[in-house]
Every structure is written in C-alpha cells, then in structure tokens.
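Fill in residues.
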C-alpha cells in the first residue's frame, strides 16, 4: 500500500469499500436499465451503447449525448487498461528486488517510471493479440482465469494470515476472506468444467513462468555465493603486465592506442591477423607499423580462414599462458574510433564489438578499449 497516507491499512480499507460501493451501484443500475429497455446483444454494437441510444433518443441533443457517452466509456476503458501498465512495473520491481526477475526491472527510466516493466507488458500484450487475432471470445476466458486464480490464492492467504494472528478466534476476522475465496474457487471450478478448452493455455504458461522465476532466483543465489568475500581470499602481486594491442590498420587510433599501452604495460605486443585475400595490404600494414613504432614487437598471424576471431583467440591464449609463467597479467587493448554522431556507430566498430564479446569469456584476461573520438 505505498500510495496511501497513514494509517495505510485503514485508508486502504475505506478506499476499497468506496470503490466496491460505486461498482455495485453501477452494476445494479446498468442491469436494471438493461432489463427495463429490453436490450438484447446484437453484433456490431455493445449492450451498453444500445442502452444509451435507447435512453437518450435520436434527437440532435440525444445523438450528441450518445457520442459523449461513448467517448466517456472509451476513456474509462483506457484508464482501466492503463492500470496494468502502472501495476505490473511495480510488481516486476518487487519481484526483481527479491531476485525472481532480472534486476533490470528495478531501473527507472527518464520519466521516473519502471520502463522495462512497461515495455515487457506492452510486448506481451502485442504477442497475445497476434496469437489470438484480437478475439475477445478467446482472450476473456484467459483473463478470467488469470484474475480469479490469484484472487482465490490471495483470499486463502488472508485466511491463513488471520489464523496465524488470532488462532482459534480467526473466524470472525476472516469471514469476508472465506466468502471471497469460496466465490473465486467456485468461478475457477465453473471455468474448469465448462471452458477448459479456452483456458488451458493458462496452466502451461504459469508453469513456465514459475520455472523461469525459480531459475532466475537460483542463478542470483549462486552468483551471490561466488562473489561473497570470505577468509580464503588470496592477495596476488603481479610482476608486470603484458599488453596485447589488436591492430587492423595503422592510423591515428593506433598511435593513441600504442601511447596508452606504453603507459600501462611492461611488455607490449601488437598483433595483426593476415588472410590470404589481404596479404598485400597486410604487408603494407606491417611496414607502416615498423616505421612508426620500431620499438614495439609486431606479430602478424597468418590464417587461411576469413574469420580472424579464432586465430586471435588462440594467440591471446598463448600469450596468457606465457604471461602466467612470468607472473604477469594480460591486457588485450582493442582500439576503436567513436563517430561524431550516434547513428554512425552502426557503420563502424562491428569487428571490435565481436572481438570483445568473445574475449570476455577468457579468464584472467583484461579487456580494455582505447577510443579515438572523431570531430566530424
């Protein structure tokens, strides 16, 4: 009850009572008017619209009031639909807080809303609409079972809560919850008996979601266990750092990367991968590199494959083994340039992104990026 002033429980109960009274009054009134006007369902117009048309009449003012009524109904439905987009992000936040959903659902967007929860709900709604082709006859039974199963469980939970709190005297405090649970279980039973063919997807979906949530919880528990500090932590003093700089071409980016590598490394190795299709260009790269950086070791790895990632990974593994023998760390420096406009990123740096993705799975290898920013 985060949105109620203190005392929260009392204010929430009053609000719920007022809402129930309004809902009961509207339901009773609509039912009476529907019976009084003799409206029966027809295709193409809702029962509520037929009732409004019959009551307001066909005069110009009546037609105007009818359209106002329809617009008001649409706005109310829009607000009702929006409740899911305000409630689900809070639900996903609390589940993420308890490690049953990814932590990304705890992050707020620019408008201070839990944007990831909103986007997830929107995506799920779109998927359901596409699967069921927007058929309300198929979606309403799923909605009904999806509503009354949680209602039944929550009412049952409240009965258990009162029993724990008051012991044998719980009955007088839990009569409303017992009645609510009985009604909900009755509705669920009716759905199971008469609409099982329409509601069966609910059960495998719930089972899959429960498995997913428990798997996420288990993952977070394992991560916490592995990251927790204990008395067995060993301090290691490395003798030095081997910096492996990936070189595609000799450019201003390379100059900046080499300068940075000199500042952090004891051993510096520049590595270039040469393929059969680019041998002439690769020889030019090697010549230019030796011209600009005569003091740095340049290694040209020749491969018969077009894919340069695998030979790079093999060479990194070899350097890592050699560095381990000397008590050195290994830093792989990936040079890249940053375009002046964000949309231009898609045109560049794709290989560096792929390289960093595969390198990050190497243990005891530090991945570093050197970024050269373009001005135009």
């Amino acid at each position: 009850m985060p949105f109620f002033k203190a005392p929260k429980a009392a204010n929430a109960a009053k609000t719920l009572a007022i809402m129930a009274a309004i809902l009961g009054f509207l339901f009773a009134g609509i039912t009476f008017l529907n019976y009084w006007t003799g409206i029966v369902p027809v295709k193409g117009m809702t029962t509520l619209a037929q009732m409004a048309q019959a009551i307001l009449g066909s005069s110009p003012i009546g037609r105007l009031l009818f359209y106002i009524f329809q617009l008001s109904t649409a706005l109310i439905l829009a607000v009702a639909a929006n409740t899911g987009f305000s409630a689900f992000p809070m639900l996903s936040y609390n589940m993420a807080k308890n490690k049953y959903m990814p932590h990304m659902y705890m992050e707020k967007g620019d408008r201070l809303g839990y944007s990831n929860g909103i986007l997830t709900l929107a995506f799920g709604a779109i998927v359901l609409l596409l699967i069921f082709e927007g058929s309300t006859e198929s979606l309403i039974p799923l909605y009904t079972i999806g509503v009354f199963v949680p209602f039944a469980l929550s009412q049952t939970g409240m009965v258990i809560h009162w029993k724990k709190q008051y012991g044998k005297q719980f009955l007088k405090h839990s009569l409303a919850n017992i009645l609510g649970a009985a009604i909900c279980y009755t509705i669920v039973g009716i759905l199971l008996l008469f609409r099982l063919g329409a509601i069966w997807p609910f059960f495998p979906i719930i089972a899959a979601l429960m498995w997913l949530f428990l798997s996420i919880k288990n993952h977070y528990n394992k991560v916490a266990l592995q990251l927790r500090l204990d008395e067995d932590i060993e301090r290691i003093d490395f003798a030095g750092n081997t910096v492996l700089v990936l070189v595609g071409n000799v450019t201003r980016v390379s100059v900046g990367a080499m300068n940075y590598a000199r500042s952090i490394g004891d051993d510096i190795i520049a590595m270039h991968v040469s393929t059969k299709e680019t041998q002439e260009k690769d020889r030019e790269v090697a010549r230019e590199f030796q011209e600009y950086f005569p003091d740095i070791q340049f290694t040209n790895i020749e491969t018969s494959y077009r894919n340069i990632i695998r030979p790079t990974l093999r060479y990194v593994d070899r350097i890592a083994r050699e560095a381990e023998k000397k008590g050195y760390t290994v830093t792989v420096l990936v040079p890249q340039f940053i375009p002046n406009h964000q949309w231009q990123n898609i045109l560049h740096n794709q290989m560096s992104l792929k390289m960093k993705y595969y390198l990050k799975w190497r243990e005891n290898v530090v991945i570093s990026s050197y970024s050269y920013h373009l001005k135009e």
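The CA atoms of residues 239 and 327 lie 5 Å apart.
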